[in-house]
Amino acid sequence: MYIVCSDLEGVFTPEVWINVAEKTGISELRRTTRDEPDYEKLMRWRMRILDEHGLKLHDIQNVIAQIEPLPGALEFIQWIKERTQLIVVSDTFIQFAEPLMKKLGRPTLFCHSLVMDDTNRIIDFKLRQPDPKRRTVEALQGLRYQVIAMGDSYNDVSMLRQAEEGILFRPPQNVIDEYPHFPVTYDYEEIKGILSRFIG
After folding, report:
1. Phi, psi of 134, rounded to the nearest 5 degrees
2. Do domains 2-13+70-199 and 17-64 have the same CATH topology?
3. Which of 56, 58, 59, 153 has a Cα-to-Cα distance from 144 of 20 to 30 A?
């Protein structure tokens, strides 16, 4: 039996941090996991930038509340769920994800959590576990599932490698160049064609 594990941002929604950068005018926050393979390093850097500019959790949540799913994402999720199970495995945080999950019809989400102080300042983050995307796939395989994984960034690669089938969706050229063995797709109809071979 196949199950689908997918990244969130870049697959079903726009990148949160790019939207925050655009709304705040802080161009440094445009850096994402498409650019930086070390997620913990990236998050520490983001937290420093937020502190320098006095931004707190509610400032980011206000931006996220305005983000809409990518065109066709909700229909694509429904298409998958009519055929098999979907788990969204993301390096986002539960404090960010709520409005996005509501707009996507509340698929199952595995993600991380933030730590705030009394003033709503982000002071730390708690990863669910090390290399959580790959380990989610491993756990499902231990339950005798075969996994199809989808993602677009460096932080998805270990998940794609571990899965029986790994697919890049709208990745940047640097990721394509470094991981040329993964099939690359650019729209939902194209990725449906691949998925249909396994869950059709």
Report:
1. -65, -40
2. no
3. 153
Q: Which of 138, 143, 141, 173 lies closest to 159, judged by CA?
A: 138
Rounded (10°) angle between helices 57-64 and 94-103: 10
Residues 128-172 pLDDT 10s: 999 999 999 999 999 999 999 999 999 999 999 999 999 999 999
Q: Are 155 and 91 in contact (CB under 8 A)?
A: yes
CATH number of 2-13+70-199: 3.40.50.1000
Q: Are 171 and 185 in contact (CB under 8 A)?
A: no
Enzyme catalytic residues: 7, 9
Residue of 6, 10, 158 lying closest to 79 (CA atoms): 6
| 3-class secondary-structure state, position 173 | helix
Residue ranges covered by each domain of the chain? 2-13+70-199, 17-64
Q: In sequence order, what are the residues at sequence separation of 6 or more whose Cβ sits closer than 8 angstroms to the Cβ of residue 49? A: 26, 28, 29
Residue 5 and residue 166 in contact, taking contact as beta carbons nearer than 8 Å: no
pTM of the predicted protein model: 0.92
Give CA torsion, residues 165, 132, 190, 107, to 10 deg.
120
Residue entry with tokens 């059709």: 200
Q: Say if CB 175 and CB 34 are below 8 A apart.
A: yes
Superfamily name with CATH number, domain 17-64? thrh gene product, domain 2 (3.90.1470.10)
